[in-house]
Amino acid sequence: MPSVCLYFEVHQPVRLNHFSVFDIGSANNTYSTYFDHKKNRAIFEKVANKCYLPTNKLMLDLIRKYEGRFRISYSLTGTFIEYCELFMPWVLDSFQDLYATGAVDFLDETYFHSLSGLYDDLGEFEEQVKMHRDMMKRVFDYKPKVFRNTEVIYDNRIAKKVADMGYQGILAEGAEKILGWRSPNYVYKPANANLKVLLRNYPLSDDVGFRFSSRQWKGYPLTADKYAQWISRSDGNLINLFMDYETFGEHQWTETGIFDFLRHLPGEVLKQGNLDFATVSDVVKRFEPVGDIDAPWAVSWADAERDVSTWLGNNMQVACFNELKELGKKLKKKGDPDLLYTWRLLQTSDHLYYVSTKGFEDGAVHAYFSPYEIPYDGFINYMNILQDLKQKAEQ
Fold first, then answer.
1. pTM over 0.90
2. Looking at the structure, do residues 83 and 147 belong to the same domain, yes or no?
3. Is 255 designated active site?
4. With contact defined as beta carbons under 8 Å apart, do 271 and 229 qualify?
5. Distance between CA 137 and CA 81 in Å, rounded?
6. Same-domain check for residues 339 and 385
7. Domain-embedded: residue 348
8. Catalytic residue among 151, 246, 250, 268
């Protein structure tokens, strides 16, 4: 019987204040000066009321209605948890209520939703994963068995690190560049590690995450019964549907019918007779790999290229990334915990995402999320802050 694995990423970034070249050297408190706390709180509370709280309530109702046969998985970034604890603890309570049902699983990831998996020699990736693991123990008293790297960035090197850290599974994009002719609807293993790889079925995932409300899409309108039939007709023994949790109510507004779609989806899937739901832990326990995948270059779930060009696709992004790495070496040597925490908040991948200069549909998506009018504004603002932090690291 094929299993449907529904996984949701839950993340909110820290947004930056306007910081000009004339401000470099003037910041006494980096945390209060660099970050726009008023905007961060306002956006978090808006998304919590539009997405997190109503979606969690609906998920809880569905789990109870189907007596635990509806099963789902989440990963929660450290910045998201910090927002919950600072501003709306009851949002975190609602995730704890979901976990208490026994039908919800959690994954580990980098605490700051960072690109530290692409660093070579700082040990930062392992430190952030440990921070996330410790947070999950503190908040949920749970130790995840499956890992999801930032934006599902995956390559052989990352797979080996994750396996060495004791995880049983890892998420990756079901991209043709690593699969070739094969289907993403099976479990695979890395060519160089003892680890199970769960590959995202991106056509079916993006039907909900990106195309749901598009009237130009040939599949519009997408109803729960239609979608369940598409899933039922899929090959393989596993259909991994991975998407941002903010799909519900934020990216796809209530008026699109997204909540009605979600409300009817479990019943329509179970009605097919040949499908059930599984968490990521269920999957690694239930299925054995059918073959190896080789990923010498990083793949991700972002943009049409499904690589890391989303964050490192132009010279501005590469300059910021290299400056960020060099800063890490100085700050780890300096040992100031406040400056180190600030540096880690600046690692959040969203900051480089805003500096992308891609065109067409990918560019439109970047512009939708970006607080800047043009990518160059994001580059200047971010680099000014890095230069200010660099001065403090060298003092």
1. yes
2. yes
3. no
4. no
5. 13
6. yes
7. yes
8. 151
